[in-house]
Target: Acetyltransferase YpeA
Amino acid sequence: MPDWEISVGGPDDIDALGPLWVAVHHRHVESMPELAPYVTDAETWRVRRALYERLLDEPDTLLLLASSGDTLVGYGLAYPMPVDDSWIADTWVTGPRVGEIESLSVLPAFRGSGLGSELLRRLEQHLEAVGAPDIVLGALAGNDDALRLYQRRGYRPTWLYLSKFTGR
Model:
């Protein structure tokens, strides 16, 4: 039996997500140090928090919280969007709405426990239920663990961004 349980969260839970998002940010920094400089922990959370506030105001957005005892150890956030508002419509045949897994975070001590897979499975089920069975998600190219998880679940590369950041 896993040492965690999953529940549905909402706007009142946003502040609790800060440390888990910062853990994702640290994973980005570790995965691709050649893209430095990175924003501070405070800045990454300020920007991400504002995004979560907007998304949780939208219908059909789902926030899942994973806890071990009284400690938040992971979360996932997904939402549907009109395919015409995406980069998908001019290339692939999909339904009128496509889902996006916006965030998936599992603290390092709980990685490999099946928690990430379970969060992803439940987010996918939700998106299917709200009419967005076609799903996109993003992962940093150097985050091999996340890429393996997503590929095991059937995700395949579709679009590649190349970046040239000057830090100015």
In short: The chain has one domain: 5-152. Residues 5-152 form a domain with the Aminopeptidase fold (CATH 3.40.630.30). The beta strands are 5-9, 62-68, 71-82, 97-106, 134-137. The mean pLDDT is 94.
